[in-house]
Amino acid sequence: MMDTSEYIALFLEEAAEQINILEQDILLLEQSPSQEVLNEIFRAAHTLKGSSRAMGFTAMGELTHAMEDVFDALRNGELSVSTGMVNRLFDALDTIKAMRDQIAEGGTSDIVCDELVQSLRDILGGSASNTPTAVPEPEQTRSGLTLQEHEREAALTALDNGLGVYRLTVHLAEDTLMKSVRALMVLQTIDANGGVVIASHPDEDALDNEQFDLSFELLVATDKPVEQLRSVLLQISEIREVEVASWQEATTPRLAQATTGTGAAAPPSEAPSAEEPVPQPTQPATPPAAKSEEEKTASRTPTPSQTVRVDVARLDTLLNLVGELVIDRTRVAQLGREFEARFQHDELVDSLLETAGHIGRITDELQEHIMKARMLPIEHVFNRFPRMIRDLAQKFGKEVRLVMEGQETELDRSVIEIISDPLIHMLRNSVDHGIEPPDQRESLGKPRQGTIRLSARHEENHILIEIEDDGKGMDPTHLREAAVRKGILTRDAAERLSDREALNLIFAPGFSTAKEVTEVSGRGVGMDIVRSNVQRVGGIVEVDSTPGKGTRFSIRLPLTLAIIRALLVGVAGQVYAIPLSSVLETLKIQPDTVQFVGRRPVIVLRGRTLPLVSLQAYFSKHGADITDSRRAEEPMFVVVVGLGERQIGLVVSHLIGEQEIVIKSLSRYLGEISGVSGATILGDGRVALILEVADLFDNVSAYAA
Question: Does the chain have fewer CB atoms within 10 Å around its N or its C terminus?
Fold first, then answer.
């Protein structure tokens, strides 16, 4: 029996793609039905049905088939879209997702879906039978295939564009057990090699359901030599033979009779010239088309064969290797400078410097391309939210419209994986806490339907993600009262908070304003996790809200977590790296400019009070603090860093300069070190700690001007 395990990974990837298409398009279908959306949904369901049946996952195939019948009835105008129908389709889709997950985990699925299949059949009022949605029966029983007008036009257009059009007769081995799998592989191989299947006999439904003997016909257009395509098809196991014949308009409206290996040929009246085997592709019939063949081939869009799927683990390995190369590049450049200083005007030193420069340029380019290969459009995260918002709105009896912008914005996949959960939580809060019920909105003079806007865009060297709703907003007074009630702050401390600081109370552990605990919110767990997750990837989250108008969350994220630019600073003989994304400016100040508010040192910078933190004192109990520097009357170097609207000055011994660094995680045996997010290896082999700026802010009070 044939082993299909080698195709499981491909099936799972393609199934995930089709499920994603179905989920998005079913939502579109509910909001604004159109023939275009229905056609795309039908194609996705048809593809998923065919591949699942071909792999032997019968239950998934049957459930998808039942969905396909509903889509077909909608497409033919026999049904109209309703909320109940969409709910059943989503139930079916959720079950298909569960099946796929089971298959991914154990290679099979034991989920029973008979009731779901029947519920979808019930939508059709009994009109759907268990037979596949297919073209009329006469087309499937003939020995050849009558081309539909659009198929004939497609073939003629292909010829006019300089392509070759051929009839392929594919013969399977007699002991083939899963014929539909082989048929599917033939279709996929043709597609992957730049070919287009114009028509088939029997049709694709029959091929999916193995309603054919050991051979089938395909009408294919291709710009490749037909013998090359034939050779690739013969490499598929259990394909015994592939016969090739050219196609010309003279053969229309009927495709030539299928050759079964018995030597039977078409009668002369059916253009015998079209039945002659051709070892090489023929040129188009008219000289003008042949004359512009090269131009047309060059102008065609790239074929799918120019794209390959790569396991993300391989990309991670490549990135790690590039990171090591970046470290060595820095080391080679430093050695070159040392040799130049020691052996000036030496030819070998000049050659070394030239080679080091070339290695540096190549490494930069390699790094850039690897980083681009790891980038993914943020739509990979955004696409799951419309369904979630719809379900939550139904659960809470609210009317909510989700508007998404900037889905094409690219972000490193490692950042995308971490940011997904925080976005989910904030969107759920927007529906639960933010958007008011329709009647209440109407009484306030607002539209019954609330709007949540989710957007992403590049901003300098960051990605800015915003979640904004037009709901009831947050009242700082109520937040202060909730903090006192929960025991998070004393009443005295709460009253001293500014409105902006009061808004930030929502990120405090255990904070909640909900009077009732629901399955969505109210337990005081969530927004503190959101902030810690965002900070874990070097990002910051801010909130802005106006009572009665709405709330906006802003998340700033780095483009990547692997290789970043940093400012290197010296502190008491040690080197620290400060992510350049957090650095606002550097200063050299005199000790007498330092003042104290309470026991905390500050300076006044352009009319604003800037708190100072001595890194030497922060990382060493016995390190010199700012008071010691004042006594010594030594100038101090200050690096001003920002987190949202807050700023502090980090006092360092000296500035070293900017450098690209490779982030290395600290050993888990070290645990979490406050103020440190990781480490990097410098060009001279020393280890420099990378500062976690958010931790430094947590250990200093911000002062208003």
Answer: N
Q: What is the pLDDT of residue 630?
A: 56
**Which position among 46, 65, 171, 201 bears the catalytic label?**
46
- Residue 405 a catalytic site member: no
SS3 content of the chain, % helix, strand, coil (to 5): 45, 20, 30
Q: What is the pLDDT of residue 329?
A: 82
For 460-549, strand residue ranges (E) read: 462-469, 540-546
Q: Which two three-digit tokens encode residue 700?
A: 């200093």
Annotation marks residue 429 as catalytic: yes
Evaluate if residue 289 carries a pLDDT over 60. no
pLDDT (mean) for 543-572? 86
pLDDT-derived band at 514, boundaries 50, 70, 90: low
* Cα atoms in the Cβ-side hemisphere of radius 13 Å centred on 381: 28
CA 21 from chain center: how many Å? 14
Q: Provide the 3-class DSSP secondary structure of residue 507.
A: helix
pLDDT mean over 366-373 = 81
- The Cα 7–Cα 5 span in angstroms is 5
Residue found by looking up tokens 């060297």 in the block: 461
Question: Pick the catalytic residue: 23, 40, 62, 68?
Answer: 68
- Residue by residue, what is the 3-state secondary structure of 327-385? HHHHHHHHHHHHHHHHCCCCHHHHHHHHHHHHHHHHHHHHHHHHHHHHEEECHHHHCCH
Q: Which amino acid is at 250?
A: A
CA-based torsion, 304, 310, 316, 319: positive or negative: negative
CB 419 within 8 A of CB 403: no
Report yes or no: 636 and 673 within 8 Å, Cβ to Cβ. no
* pLDDT beyond 60 at 367: yes
Which segment, 179-183, 492-496, 544-548, is predicted with the most confidence on average?
A: 544-548
Whether 443 has a pLDDT exceeding 90, the answer reads yes
Strands 646-652 and 608-614: parallel
> How would residue 340 be classed by pLDDT, with cut points 50, 70 and 90?
confident
Backbone angles phi, psi at 590, to 5 degrees: -90, 145
Name, in order, each residue with C-beta under 8 angstroms of 584's C-beta and a sequence gap of 6 or more.
640, 641, 642, 647
For residue range 560-572, what is the model confidence (pLDDT) as tens digits? Answer: 666 788 899 998 8
Residue 301 is predicted with a pLDDT of: 37
Average pLDDT over residues 655-674: 76
Evaluate whether 170 touches 242 at the Cβ level (below 8 Å): yes
pLDDT band at 403 (very low <50, low <70, confident <90, very high): very high
Nearest to 696 by CA among 576, 560, 542, 572: 576
The residue type found at 684 is D
Decide if 305 contacts 195 (C-beta within 8 A): no
Give me the pLDDT at residue 262, please. 35
Residue at token pair 């809060």: 429
- Beta bridge partners of residue 170, listed in sequence order: 216, 242
Main-chain dihedrals φ then ψ at residue 400, nearest 5 degrees: -135, 135
DSSP 75-121: HTTSS---HHHHHHHHHHHHHHHHHHHHHHHHS------HHHHHHHH
Using DSSP bridges, classify how beta strands 400-405 and 450-459 pair: parallel, antiparallel or unpaired: parallel
Percentage of residues in the chain with pLDDT exceeding 90?
Answer: 18
Q: Considering 40, 217, 243, 429, which one is annotated as catalytic?
A: 429
Q: What DSSP assignment string belongs to 435-469?
A: SPPHHHHHHTTS-SSEEEEEEEEEETTEEEEEEEE
Complete domains list, the chain, with CATH: 5-123 (1.20.120.160), 147-254 (3.30.70.1110), 312-377 (1.10.287), 379-474+513-558 (3.30.565.10), 563-698 (2.40.50.180)
Q: Is 703 exposed, middle or buried (0-12, 13-18, 19+ CB in 10 A)?
A: middle
Q: Give the number of other Cβ atoms within 10 Å of residue 416's Cβ.
A: 20
CB 333 within 8 A of CB 360: yes
Instruction: Give burial (CB, 10 Å; 0-12/13-18/19+) of 313.
Output: exposed
Look up residue 287 and give its two tokens. 């000289």
Q: Residue type at 480?
A: R
